[in-house]
Amino acid sequence: MFARRLAGHLARGLVMILVVTTVSFFVIRSVPGDPMAARYEKLVEQGMSPGAAQRAVEVLYGFAPTGGLWQQYVDYMSGLLRLDLGQSLLVPGVSVSTVLFSAAKWTVLPVLAGTLLSFLIGVVMGVYAAIRRSGRLGDILAISGSLLHGVPQYVLALLLGAVFTTLLPILPTSGTADIMFEPGFNAGYIGSLIEYATLPVLTYALASYGGWILAMKSSVVTVLGDDFILAAELRGIKRGIVFRYVARNAILPLFTILALSLGMLFGGAIFIERIFNYPGLGLMLIDGINNRDYALMGGAFLLITAAIIVANIVADLFYTVIDPRVRSGEGAA
Amino acid sequence: MITGKNITKTFRQRGGVLAGREVRALRGVDFAIEKGGAASFIGESGCGKTTLGRIIAGLETHDSGEITIDGTPMSPLKPRHREPYFRRIQLIHQDPYSALNPTRTIHQTLNAPLVLRARQTGRPRSWVDERAEELLALVGLDPAYVLPRYPHQLSGGMRQRVVIARALTVDPDMLVADEAVSMIDVSLRLGILALLKDLRERLGVSVLFITHDVATARYIGDDGELYVIYRGQVVERGHVETIISAPVHPYTQSLLSAIPVLHGLEQPGEQRVVPTEALDESHHDAGCLFARRCPFRTERCESELPVLGHGEGTPQEHACLHPERRSVVATPIGRG
Amino acid sequence: GSTGDKPAASGGSGGSGGGLYTTIDGLKPGLDVNGPINPWNPKGNAFVGLNAMRIAWSKNHMTDPNQFYPGIAESWEIAPDNSSITLHLHPDNKWSDGKPVTAEDVKFSIALAYTQGSTAFAIDPGAAGAASEVEVVDDKTVKITQDMDNPSVTFVRGVMDSYIVPQHVWSSVLTADFWDKLKAARGEGAEAEKAREEITALSEKVLAFAPPKDVSAGPFTLERMNPSEALLVKNKNFYNAANVGPDQVKLLNYTGNEQIWNYLIAGKLDNAPFTAVPADVMKRISSTPGNGVIKGYSPVSLGMAFNQAKKPYDNVHVRRGLAYLINRDEITKIASPEGGTPALTTTGIHQKPAAEWLGADLATLEPYKLDAAKAEEEFKKAGLKKDGGKWTLPDGTPWKFTVNVPAPFSDWISGAKAITSQLTEAGIDAEVVTTADYPLYLKEIAEGKYDVGFWLIALGPAPYNIYQRLYGASNGWSILGGKIKHAEPGKNGNWMGGPETIEVDGAKVNPGELTAKLNSASGDEQKKIIGQLAKAANQDLPVVQLWDYVNTQFVNTNRFSGFPENDSDLLRQPSGVWIQLGMVKKQ
Amino acid sequence: MSVTPEKKAPGVRVSGLSVVYRTQAGELPAISGIDLDLVPGTITGVVGESGSGKSTLALSLLNAVQPPGRISAGSVEIDGLGDVVKLRGEELRKARGRHIGYVFQAAQNSLNPLKTVGKQLLDLGRSHDVADLRGLVREAKDLLGRMGMDGARVLDSHQHELSGGMRQRVGIMLALVLNAHLVVLDEPTTALDMITQATILRIVREVHEERGLTTLVITHDLGVVAEVADRLAVMYGGQVVEQGPTMEVLSAPRHPYTQGLLQAIPRLVGDIDEARALPGRPPTLGTIPVRGCVFRDRCVLRMDVCETEKPPVVSFGTSIALCHAVEAAGRDGRAGSPRAGEIQEVVGAQGATGVHEVRGEQS
Amino acid sequence: MTAPVIAAGGGRAALRRNFWRGVWRVLKRKPSRMVGMVIVLGFAFMGAFGPMFYPDPLPRDTAALYAPPSWAHPFGTDFEGTDVLSLLVTGSRYVLLTALVTAVITVVLGAAIGLFAGFRRGRWDTVLMRITDMKLTIPGLPLLLVLSTIWKFTSAFEMGLVLGLLGWGGVARAVRSQTLSLRERGFIEAARGLGLSTTHIIGRELLPSMAPFIAMNMLIAVTGAVYAQVGLFFLGVLPFEANNWGVMLNLAVFGGGAMSSPAALPYLMAPLLAILLLTLGIVLVVDAMDEIFNPRLREE
Ligand SMILES: Nc1ncnc2c1ncn2[C@@H]1O[C@H](COP(=O)(O)OP(=O)(O)OP(=O)(O)O)[C@@H](O)[C@H]1O
Ligand SMILES: Nc1ncnc2c1ncn2[C@@H]1O[C@H](COP(=O)(O)OP(=O)(O)OP(=O)(O)O)[C@@H](O)[C@H]1O
Ligand SMILES: [Mg+2]
Ligand SMILES: [Mg+2]
């Protein structure tokens, strides 16, 4: 059963990736502007003579895809089959996958941390808001949740940035870690990593916290209204155990959302990365676009899309595993 | 006049985990309902009553078999051409709460089909309002009170009446009432049943009544026919009173025995039949579908599938290899 | 609470106790951990002056491009006719792995430079200023000869700008027969063509080559990096190691100017190259203890270029009218208060070298001082009409002035917005049009999809480079095989669409031809040409010069001293060069 | 925990119990001043239409009325526990489950969907500090077995793997497994079909007798009560309008509501024309009359006094009815009560035809 | 029952009156909703009439660049010395108009596709939902970034069109599942059984039932659109417009150094606060949606 489901998902996912890759390929190739002209201008501005700049730029042509659009497409797709995403133009001679993965690390870690942090806090506060839903505190929690949920990430990022760099400059607003620390598992380096990631993580956590509190609140309210909770109470089940009943049932649907939002995280942090100059995928994508690095753009799209698709699959399968109703099939009817 | 021959329906789960699982909801059901007639389908939960009702009302398609409405077989017709026939068969939902649109007033709810009707029959607009009031009065409601209200402002019984009035807007030949009273308060149930009966008598609408409570089936009309369905198969068919007083199929007997006895007013039937097991739809046996649960089964029952037919000496048709009349029905004290 | 001083305490690696010098690589916006340690790679992690060494460092003299500080070469002799240059390497210079830097290394690096087509080492026959021969005289001496068929005054500069890398690390990139191939490529015919192709094909390989570890002849080697910072440590084998002040150099990455501002405010940077800074930020930067500013010449100006193929900008009076109408002082104050000085006039040259090149003549040029009356006069001459306070074109349609700028350049946007505000106040319906990014902007103006757009001009110090921006490819002139050609407006990248000849002092001149001549002319001839071109630009106004950039560098003297003075000729070299020359000292 | 249940069925005395719900229109009573005695060792059935306050009453027995409701007055004395209304916190929790078993109205959904029945059983045991959890499981299997199910399999199942009837039985098992002797079943058979209903009712009866319980069965179906209950209480509009031994009440209903209800039940035998619906519709929280008799709007025997005065308690041996008319009839010296037939005559005299009668529903 | 009897025929106007009275009641029930409504209406007013209160072009004072807040300039001035508040107000029209266009397109398209798919089911459903999935899988913001280089969104309508075209996926998915569940509800089935036209069923039966949902999505789409366009302007990939909120953010941060020096902070704060306030208003109003459209909750 599980294997069949998985196979179906994978097949559909592959088709999806194929289509999305194709669409993004043509969209990306239709971006006007010549990467070489831009680089030429830069070199000239840096004082290189026009002729030398011209020749230097020509070298880069070697890294740009050649042939007609259709040929490029065929090349690109056949490259994909070999898991080859092509060469970066931005960093000539380096494969797109290398660039992607080194950037992805810096998106995944903070966003993952932010999401999990906000998930934990949001879930707890959501339970609280649900229990206190008729009181003032519940109202405040819910409205602040909606507000945080509604406010775009960049507003939060800018606000936090303004507070922590202009008003009380205590946190670094760009970079990943102090280079003076030897990377590795040592307190200094890890402390530095945390220090540098604080603002992005905090922003991401704040931005997603609202969603969790809302989702958890409504989920808990639903479960609290379910008969089996009252039934458990009427059987004299201990409060702690009843609370676990509520929590487990309420959190179950949230795991799906969690999986999905983890899928979205690859593409989700452009603003935050731009504002805090955190060198993740978002910043890389902007760089790729600005430099017309088609292969890099395509790779980023593919990675983001694949992450979403995988997250969807995982969410579904995860649900199959943890929810006994789906596991044995009734819930799917 | 609507007849069905050998209607079958199998549900196949598509997609999801259950993909491939089959439920044989109907296994070759025959029926015939006269114009102005009444028929009741009874049976346990999940035995296919609703499915049959929906097929008859044209809301569901069947797999094989033939439905004939007023002599016209439906299967050769394109879905579009079937509609006018099925329009004349209206389904009354079990749940009057969901059967009415909560965002529309009763006036709006009745108006829409009436306007259509007026257009079809070339009647003037003014007829619509008149007709709405007329129909509400017919189902025993005060139009002035009901019309401007939203469904949530009405009681369950009133809602069910509105549902019936709405079904009447298209002048149907037949009403299919699927558990139409099971969600209505006890004290009001009889009112709805009486209304259905009244409509039969006054408008000549035939009524197909679906229930798992045999007692209510009587109230649609004493000339009604009763179909006892078990796992998609009709196991006993005949006149209501005949079957109640002299059921021969052990399943029918189980159903009748299950009706609570009003101790003090009634005394229980002497030969009450209790099935030996609970219903298990997934079970596939070669023989009689009821055999596993039947207290009277023989070896023959496990291999031979009985078909519906007239047994010797019984006025009703039945599908039992060992038909035997048992007195299972409670009798009022003092009448014997 | 910033991280600036923490690492020393908590101990990084490398020789601590020595100074840690913190700076930004202005030539390379964006460090990239994936980049190879390869000076030719645009994202390579070879940092000029630190672990990427050139033969020598240009002084960026205002008029003479051929003045240098020593780099790999300790000294050099330039033939009086510029036909050759002989390099003498430092006798005791070694690579960071202990091997000596030899003339063979230089020759090998020049071979690599050929694949990259650098100015002096172009393989295409007939390229101006290309080397014809590279000769290893002895272990520490190399002689490079220019192909005098098509000489260039910047030949020497082209040679000196070459990067030198260790042959023993890079040897795998080239085959032994490279020089034979090069010889073949110099010729004509199919064989030469094939050889050229083969060499060009090598370019990718060279660009992508990633040495496993940094072997440098510079003062530092790359120790490690992360996406935001790079750490370099002192190369003990560097010839001038004794005088290298800092033990470590930390390079900070930046993607936006605001990052540099924050670093500066926090006092984290010992040196930062030029960045546009808003006035208030400047105030905060200055208030940080130890922070200081060195200002010097930056051979760039910002011009507002017209598309002369479009009406009414084809009319010189319209352009002049606009020049009179635009308040350059105000615009500079709004857009680039720290990084620019309002252009005093429009010559196509930055004000400072203009004074050197033109001398007293500069004063004779029209300064286009703010003068609404003159502007009106000029507009009327062009047949424009003022109708109810609004200017209309001669045919009566309203004049809609749109100025294009790329969206990411916020100082340009502010400037453009200020221009439109001024023009609107003067009755011209004016609007800023932005383009999503710079490549798109370049593409769009190249396609002539603009009326007026911002354009960098006066890129010195070589005079050809200066005027190439006004009378080069973008205005229709290109040099092919030593021949000058002019393309019609709107064709072959001619988006300025100026006239092929301009009347200056009663004589018709072809500014494109004059500009091309600057490449090989020298001395007085150059001066004369520049005088003509300046006049042409001043009269004909293909652009209105808005402001001249100032090379505003930031230094912090808390930890180090010995930075260049204002107007120093080293200011355009990165601080790595200052360090290796032994200027920067620990406090 | 002893496996053989001792016979110690408690008596329950509900007196003056009122429950109010807070609504937009203020606090409205769902139950007002109910007196009800549960005789130890009997099954008491409570019937009443939707909204008559049955579930509220049932929950009150466990002091478990859910907000926005609260018990506003009265007491529920249970032998061995005292006044449940006064119990709080842990005491109350321990009383629930161990002393009072509750079988939920929608037993279908009374199990945690994520846990197997067995695990929930263990939760129950732990909550009540049962030392011998194995014993508990044995007891549960035993109970399930007696209800006709494979105990081991059921304990291993999730809720969704059980049919409606099975879930209901599991609910009963969980209510009884801790040896509670007061069991409250709220609509134990609603939404089940006839055959399953009959099975459940039989099980209720059997278990009741075997374990010596005091049982309260709540239902809207008079038939169900008639089938299982020894005693019967009829609720209407938040009041018990009539109560007494089942046989007695059914054979000689005194309150006009009980009579009407009896008549409205479709029967398998007998003249179908004799049966008819009650006019009007059952009251809801907002429409329950505050003064006078709650049933008067639908009552065929309405008198002026019904508008203003609370109906008096009229008792006949072990039965009582709350009705002015019954009292009046008693005063008039009529024998005991008006018999059903007589009421029919009254109705008939008013000339109610089917249609008109139902039209009265909206009044 | 003594409720007033309303004449059956002439009930339409009365119904509408009742509706508004109900809305009023719903708003009155919680003061926060009132506040939300006032905020939302305030923004609508600002967008519609705000620009009329200011001269065009806005006056500038080049002697006061990045002036701190004062009575004359509550939010200070911008890089050119223009009053930030006036920029904010005059800029609201474009922002809100785009948002409105986006919201309308998003909701109309999403609802139409969702309804069609859910109502038709079968092959159409499969195809449409696959497309929707695909749409939802393609990352929106990166795509917008790329699109902004291809297409210049000069007018509010173009911008709205693009955002709308990119945004309908979620609504379609949700409307479809709502449709599927409503479809199984008795009243839809009954309407089909009565032979009522599909238009009637969708327009009169389905849509009103989904009204709160759709209205909510509409409001959310409004905020979403504001965020998306302001964000794009902030990143600087869209055409320049001095009084656009996003451009204000961009210039404040990347030009004015709002993240480095407090001088440009008011210039940054003004659009931020506007966005926060708009969000707050919409959040508070959304809270009332369910009750407004549900006759039962409305009248309670
Ligand atoms: N749409 C469907 N898809 C799959 N199976 C279905 C569907 N509708 C009904 N069934 C199955 O068909 C069988 C008969 O169902 P049906 O609803 O007709 O029974 P019923 O007699 O009306 O039962 P009840 O008394 O519970 O209403 C059941 O097993 C049911 O699960
Ligand atoms: N949470 C609540 N808020 C407001 N009123 C309530 C609430 N719960 C119940 N009521 C009201 O209290 C009255 C009694 O409700 P109760 O649930 O006890 O009735 P019931 O007899 O059990 O009905 P049913 O047969 O429908 O279960 C009803 O009028 C109901 O509307
Ligand atoms: Mg059914
Ligand atoms: Mg209840």
TrEMBL record, chain A:
Name used for this protein in its record: Peptide ABC transporter, permease protein
Location of the protein in the cell: Cell membrane; Membrane
Matches recorded under CDD domains: TM_PBP2 (cd06261)
InterPro entries linked: MetI-like, MetI-like_sf
Assigned keywords, A-Z: Membrane, Transmembrane, Transmembrane helix, Transport
PANTHER family membership: OLIGOPEPTIDE TRANSPORT SYSTEM PERMEASE PROTEIN
Domain ABC transmembrane type-1: 104-315
Membrane topology listed for this record: Multi-pass membrane protein
Signal peptide limits: none
Chief location of this protein within or outside the cell: membrane
Transmembrane regions: 12-31, 111-131, 151-171, 183-206, 251-276, 296-319
Taxonomic lineage of the native organism: Bacteria, Bacillati, Actinomycetota, Actinomycetes, Streptosporangiales
GO biological process, any: transmembrane transport
GO cellular component: plasma membrane
Automatic annotation (TrEMBL), chain B:
UniProt entry keywords in alphabetical sequence: ATP-binding, Nucleotide-binding, Transport
CDD domains noted in UniProt: ABC_NikE_OppD_transporters (cd03257)
GO-annotated biological processes: peptide transport
Domain called ABC transporter: residue spans: 2-256
Example GO molecular function: ATP binding
Coiled-coil residue spans: none
Source taxon at top rank: Bacteria
Entries under Pfam families matching the protein: ABC_tran (PF00005), oligo_HPY (PF08352)
PANTHER family linked to this entry: ABC-TYPE DIPEPTIDE/OLIGOPEPTIDE TRANSPORT SYSTEM, ATPASE COMPONENT, ABC-TYPE DIPEPTIDE_OLIGOPEPTIDE TRANSPORT SYSTEM, ATPASE COMPONENT
Name of the protein: Dipeptide transporter ATP-binding subunit
Organism from which the protein derives: Streptosporangium roseum (strain ATCC 12428 / DSM 43021 / JCM 3005 / KCTC 9067 / NCIMB 10171 / NRRL 2505 / NI 9100)
UniProtKB/TrEMBL annotation, chain D:
Domain annotation ABC transporter: ranges: 12-262
Subcellular location per the Swiss-Prot or TrEMBL entry: Cell membrane
Protein's UniProt keywords contain Zinc-finger: no
SMART domains: AAA
Pfam families (UniProt xref): ABC_tran (PF00005), oligo_HPY (PF08352)
GO cellular component terms, semicolon-separated: plasma membrane
Keyword annotations from UniProtKB, A to Z: ATP-binding, Cell membrane, Membrane, Nucleotide-binding, Transport
Gene3D superfamilies found in the cross-reference section: P-loop containing nucleotide triphosphate hydrolases (3.40.50.300)
Ranges in coiled-coil conformation: none
Keyword Cytoplasm recorded: no
Record's bilayer topology term: Peripheral membrane protein
Listed InterPro entries: AAA+_ATPase (IPR003593), ABC_Ni/Peptide_Import (IPR050388), ABC_transporter-like_ATP-bd (IPR003439), Oligopep_ABC_C (IPR013563), P-loop_NTPase (IPR027417)
UniProt GO BP: peptide transport
PROSITE patterns xrefs: ABC_TRANSPORTER_2
Transmembrane feature ranges: none
Similarity field: Belongs to the ABC transporter superfamily.
Protein name in the entry: ABC transporter ATP-binding protein
Organism: Streptosporangium roseum (strain ATCC 12428 / DSM 43021 / JCM 3005 / KCTC 9067 / NCIMB 10171 / NRRL 2505 / NI 9100)
Lineage of the organism: Bacteria, Bacillati, Actinomycetota, Actinomycetes, Streptosporangiales
UniProtKB/TrEMBL annotation, chain E:
Record's subcellular location: Cell membrane
Keyword annotations of the record: Cell membrane, Membrane, Transmembrane, Transmembrane helix, Transport
Membrane topology annotation: Multi-pass membrane protein
A biological-process GO annotation: transmembrane transport
All residue ranges annotated as the ABC transmembrane type-1 domain in the record: 92-286
GO cellular component: plasma membrane
Transmembrane segments: 34-54, 94-116, 136-153, 214-238, 264-286
InterPro entries in the record: BP-dependent_transpt_permease, MetI-like, MetI-like_sf, OppC_N
Similarity comment: family membership: Belongs to the binding-protein-dependent transport system permease family.
The protein, known as: ABC transporter, permease
Source species taxonomy: Bacteria, Bacillati, Actinomycetota, Actinomycetes, Streptosporangiales
